[in-house]
Amino acid sequence: MNTLTFNQEQAAWMSAIACNEAKADYVALADAINGGLDAGLTVSQIKEAVSQLYAYTGFPRSLNALGTLQRVLEQRKADGKTSIDGEDASPLPSGYDALKQGTEVQTKLSGREFNYTFSPAEDYYLKAHLFGDIFARNNLSHADRELITVSALSGLENVMPQLQAHVRGALNMGVTDEQLRGIPAALKAAGLVSEASRAEAAIASAVDGKALAFTPSEWPLGEPNTMFAKYFTGNSYLAVLNDKGLYNVTFEPGCRNNWHIHHGAVQVLICVAGHGWYQEWGKDAVAIKPGMVITIPEGVKHWHGAATDSWFQHLTYHADAKPGNTTEWLEPVSDEHYNNLQ
Questions:
Q1: What is the CATH number of the domain that holds 272?
Q2: Which pTM value belongs to this model?
Q3: Closest listed residue to residue 249, CA positions, set 269, 278, 263
Q4: Which one in 54, 103, 194, 306 has a CA-CA gap of 20 to 30 Å to 272?
């Protein structure tokens, strides 16, 4: 069971199904399920895919997706459309050892022995349940399951390390390079453009060895921030949005600015994409996600920047600016300090 059981069209629909399940977009999911059934995917395959995804996206999304599948099937029946039921998984053999089987599968997927010693309970769940009980069900191949997982993780923000690991794992489990690179194409065709870009970035970094590529958002990247580069660790980009002092700043993964102080002005940050950090001197760092607004009081020493595994974009402007306001640039945020953030 080391090859895809889907043809190219079916694989594309399965990618759309998995990604929309992860995004909890049940209208788009219903359309993808319909397309997949019309292309010959079986009810058993789709049911198994969204059931498996509870381990990656949570029970609520998985259960809602199963409910969406039920409604689609009811509507198809009412419309006189046929759907192929397909075969359910075979019973597990006598003497089946979930932990032993799961350890073997996880080792193959990871390319090495993997032991999560920090949390033995989580290590057991991964081995015995996910890679044991779930992967042992033979109505999907291991390659099928990794195509589904990569497609779903592409629909989630801030899980790039897991997405990269499963990109490599997909190849280890029998997905061909061509099939793997077909996932972003399938997502784009389904209108999942930013999710496709996230998949492309993971493939470029995990397979091709390239730096983690920028995942496009609706906000402009801008030009290299050369004027202030000496005050940044890593590369940043600056886009001027209007003539009133509104900017979009983009940080590559790991990039952050130096500690600094705004004199005579309040700075406002609005996170619009990715995942970053903000920290005031003497306080714990705060994780920043899209939609969060940070108001930085005048005279407060602080820094902000991207997480290690994500690009980060924030809008910024100055409020209550007094004539002659200035920015005092201070020491860089040390690698030791930055790398210890959790």
A1: 2.60.120.10
A2: 0.70
A3: 269
A4: 54
Mean per-residue pLDDT of the chain: 94
Residue 131 lies in a domain: no
Q: How many CB atoms lie within 10 A of CB 89?
A: 13
Tell me the mean pLDDT in the region 53-75. 98
Count: domains in the chain:
2
Q: What is the DSSP letter of 3?
A: S
How many Å apart are CA 106 and CA 115, to the nearest integer? Answer: 10
Q: Is residue 152 part of a domain?
A: yes
Domain containing residue 330:
223-339
- pLDDT value at position 216? 61
144-157 residue pLDDT tens: 999 999 999 999 97
| Number of helical H runs and strand E runs in the chain | 12, 13
Q: What is the 3-state secondary structure (H, E, C) of 64-116?
A: HHHHHHHHHHHHHHHCCCCCCCCCCCCCCCCCCCHHHHHHHHHHHHHCCCCCC
